[in-house]
Amino acid sequence: MRARNLGPASQKVHVRSRERFAAWLGRSPDTSTPDEVKRFQQYLVESGVSIVMRNRIMTGVKFLLQVTLRRHDLVSEVFHLREPQRVPLVLSRQEIKRLLAMAPDLRARAMLSLAYGCGPARWCGCGSATSTAPRASSASSSRRAARTAT
Questions:
Q1: Which one of 27, 52, 122, 150 has the fewest CB atoms closer than 10 angstroms to its CB?
Q2: Structure pTM?
Q3: Distance from first CA to last CA of the chain, Å, rounded?
Q4: pLDDT tens, residue by residue, 98-127
Q5: What is the DSSP code (8-state) at residue 104?
């Protein structure tokens, strides 16, 4: 694994993955069959392992099968799952109207409209508080002020 320039953490994960596969199999992984590789993946899914962890384990098993054991027939049985994309929360028009109707005055209604229009990250206060736009330097600000004054 060092020859392939894998870091210490990756090496540790690959070794643990191999051990987990061998423990589940109950014998040496070099005698495994394609059906057993599929069943191991199914076992990981059914045992509630997260998608990220499952993909990490299967990457270690794939390394074992492909590089160490040279069992290319089994490597084709290893597949990775994609994590489902989360859909952002969007309020319906009816919900927005109800929300704005709860505002006690025009100022509060304007603030709610602005906050909702900025998006969910700004709405909950999770977004970045700093602007990504470049700031004007003090020299350019003073030139602009001088131009405006004349």
A1: 150
A2: 0.53
A3: 71
A4: 888 888 999 998 888 888 777 655 555 555
A5: S
Which residue type is seen at 88? P
- CA angle in degrees (0–180, nearest 5) for 17-23-29: 75
Buried b (16+ CB within 10 A) or exposed e, 15-36: eebbebbbeebeeebeebeeeb
pLDDT above 70 for 134: no
* Plot region of 48 (φ>0 → left; ψ -120 to 50 → alpha; else → beta): left
| Closest to 34 measured CA to CA, from 78, 81, 79 | 78
Q: In this structure, what is the dihedral angle of CA atoms 18, 23, 27, 29, given to the nearest 10 degrees?
A: -20
Q: Which residues of 93-105 are buried (b: 16+ CB within 10 A; e: fewer)?
A: eeeeeeeeeeeee
CB 79 within 8 A of CB 45: no
- CB-count exposure of residue 69 (10 Å: 0-12, 13-18, 19+): middle
